[in-house]
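Give me the fold.
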Amino acid sequence: MWAVIALFFGLAVVVVVRLVMIQVIEHERHETQADRTWAVETKGPRGAILDRNGFPLATSIDAWEVHVDTRLWARSQFQPTDASRRLAQLLRAPESVVLALAAQTHREGGHDALIAYGLSNALGAQIHAETLHGVQVRKTSTRRYIEGSMAAPVIGLVGRDEQGLAGLEYQLDGVLGGEAGLLVQEVDGLGQPIPFGPRAELPYEQGASVVLTIDRNLQWLAESTLKRAVEQWQAEGGHIIMMDPRNGDILALASLPTYNPMTIDLDLPESMALLRSRAASDIYEPGSTMKVVTMAAAIDAGIVSPDTTFVDTGAVVIGDRTIKNFDLSYHGEQTMTQVLQRSLNTGSVWIAQQLGARSFYEYLYRFGFGDSTHSGLPGEIGGVVTDSTDIRWSPAQLATDSFGQGIAVTPLQIVQAYATIARGGVPIRPRLVTAVVTDEGVQRFEPQTGTRAISRETSATITWMMQAVVDGVLGHPAQVDGWPVAGKSGTSDVVEVGDYLEGESLASFAGFAPADDPRVVVYVRIDRPQGEIYGGIVAAPIFSDLMAQVLPYLGVPPTAYVANPDAWHTAPTIDAAADEEQPDDERREDALTADVDTEEEQTPPVTYIQEEEDQE
């Protein structure tokens, strides 16, 4: 009997010792052996980004990723092994870097270390065939930007995980990236899938393709023109934007400085600053391009007409501030048309004072200032408008806002405002995406309009005055032989740390053509040009050169039209009643359905009551 007891006792000791060995001493090895199931997120190809004609600007191609199961490599304490050595050879990378990446993931509590991505099919297949210990190769995709840096501020880029980081790649990430799937499978001790082992898969949904309004050829023209201009003027950068006023399509949007999404190093701090869509996110004082909006507001309110006169003494005193014309000139009696032609600050101040603060700012809001254009670009802001309801406002603010100083806008807001005039007074949202294409079909996006800002009569009148600014001035550098042009230059002060910089400017010109049937709005801005500061000298010739190429491309042939300054002495009579009797779709058959409905157009104009402080 004692022998039996001794036998049972001995067996119990053996069992306890074995349990201690399994659960304590050999715990890590057995845990690794037991954990043979991998759950892997799967993704389909990211959708393509196409220009308006179907040309691919961004697309995804098949690629491979290399991962390491850190639990298997931890047994060697992340020291060199045959597997790590061979993997480093195949990747042409230092073995120490491969081991460090795996060790870092393990220290952070992860079991799946990404070692390399974007591998070719040939290299991925070779690594897979060698079945290296703990190494897994997974099929994925990598992003390719066909035209390099073209339209980078619009398109943006993705990170190594194929998630959008900037531009429309970020804004439309959920559309382009699709829905991830899940693959659960059994693997062997090397981390490789067991061919006939159990597996379950939730399929992914492939990303949709996006069709932009951008025209690849016009984008190339805008970017190459801007690059030459920046080099010519030794400038810091600039913008060129082209927009179809009939439907809001952004045909081209070029900004400098820019980046190449295929080569940019995101680890550099200066690289991150390049990712902003600056045409929508960076504000500036627009300068004299704002005088067109001030004039349109006063005409629409019935305060002035093109032939209304005021006396220009060269200076206006408001409180303790004296406002002068940009060239320190004075001209005596001037019409409103001459105010625009000569870009008189004093005239704009007089107009705003006659209009009154309440009406002036109401019109600014009607034109879209103070609010985002909702173009779809990430980070877009609405600018800064300090109106008469703000405790910081003063009469001097109204004066400076009238000629574009003290108010902050984005380049896209100026383009939208000029497009509002070009299309008869109804604002339209700038758009960058026209369609989303999936396996189920095509989802199209129609133009979006806002509430009428000014009447058709006012739009026609201010267009005539803007044409007088260009075609009514002998030898104006923005003129284009063969097409009538309406536009206005701007020279904006540069602000740094709250101070205006002497001798520095943002030189701009905005306008549209043909003036009698606008097909394109073009905005040009050159930032801090050297040797010259005025928009009429720096930006206007660029505008002219672009229009001479863009209009024929858009199917608008030149005519025998030649600018004649003698034709702009008397404003034409515009029959507003006849203009309103004809519906929009009959007046311009080629326009998309983008105007407001009949009920809105019949709404009577708003009557404003000026407060005493507005009349001062």
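Residues 577-616 have pLDDT under 50 and may be disordered.
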